[in-house]
Amino acid sequence: MDLSANIVRYGELRPCKTAFIDAHTPGSDQKENFTIIGGGVSESPDQHVHISVPHGFNIGAAGQPPHCRNSLHDHHTAEAFFVLSGRWRFFWGRWGTAGEVVLEPGDIFNIPTGIFRGFENIGTDYGMIMAILGGDDAGGGVMWAPQVIEEAADHGLVLGENGKLYDTKKQQRLPEGVAPMPLMTEEELAKRPEPTTAEVLPNHVARYWDMVALADRAPCKVIGATGLLKDRPGFEVDFITRASASATQSASGQPSVLMPVKGHWRVDWTEGHAILAPGDTMSVPAGLAHSATPSMTGEAALYRITATEDAAGPTWKG
After folding, report:
1. Is domain 208-307 given the CATH code 1.25.40.340 in the classification?
2. Residue 26 and residue 173: Cα distance in Å, rounded?
3. Where are the domains of the chain?
4. Which residues form the Cupin type-2 domain (predicted)?
5. Do domains 4-204 and 208-307 have the same CATH topology?
6. Whole-model pTM?
7. Are the C-beta atoms of residues 265 and 296 closer than 8 Å to each other?
């Protein structure tokens, strides 16, 4: 079986610099958005989708130079990030001041639904974070904090209620019958929680070196009903290291995705193999027996995302 079409190489990722409403806003205008698997939540027709086959979840990425930030937003379904490179500050709340956490390479953050969140590269070089969004339609788009929409309009970008962007600098206007995206009311905003850092970290952030220690004999369940970060958002996330990798081939009844974060990995299946490097993404079809093992000496870690039969929705409170 030829699976070359199922692999997206880091060096072949095609960015979109006009994906979201803050694409012209100073401080956010150098972002690059990548839609790797699934339709994603981009508001721009310029967004390239690398693999459009439904998986039950979406895989994307954000690349940003130092001091560039992604504006405050929310989704109806789960949003989880792991850091591929760089040093990142995540912040949340109505004004982005309720709490914050700094993540290093390999760390993962399963962000609670129902709160505005943003992030910025606070490192010294271009950085990349990989994203997992629940559901095939990723929850129907993005909800922006009101001030983000207002500031974007000052710089020429208007978001229609149809979820599409219109650039007034290019003489684009809202089509007849399409109104601007309405701002959330003060009543709606007042219902949103403002969790502190101390409230969020224990149940939503897992550190790379903690997971390395926990994956010394078997893959570490990171996101799942029994995971470190207990959630059932329509997918599960496992963390695998050299110590917990197995050459025994096995299959899942659901689609899965392999995403190395450290080292090179060899993926074998009956009729072929592939070598994956950090930043590469491989879609594994449901029912395909395969194995993933480090192909070189040295540090090696990989995230595996697998669809589940749980409905994609708000962060699980079970």
Report:
1. no
2. 22
3. 4-204, 208-307
4. 66-129
5. yes
6. 0.94
7. no
**3-class secondary structure for the chain?**
CCCHHHEECHHHCCCECCCCCCCCCCCCCCCEEEEEECCCCCCCCCCCEEECCCCCEEEEEEEECCCCEEEEEECCCCEEEEEEECCEEEEECCCCCCEEEEECCCCEEEECCCCCEEEEECCCCCEEEEEEEECCCHHHCCEECHHHHHHHHHCCEEEECCCCEEEHHHCCCCCCCCCECCCCCHHHHHCCCCCCHHHHHHHHEECHHHHHHHCCCCCEEEEECCCCEECCCCEEEEEEECCCCEEEEECCCCCEEEEEEECCEEEEECCEEEEECCCCEEEECCCCCEEEEECCCCCCEEEEEEECCCCCCCCCCC
Q: Dump pLDDT digits (tens) for 118-169.
A: 999 999 999 999 999 998 876 557 899 999 999 999 999 999 998 889 999 8
4-204: CATH number = 2.60.120.10
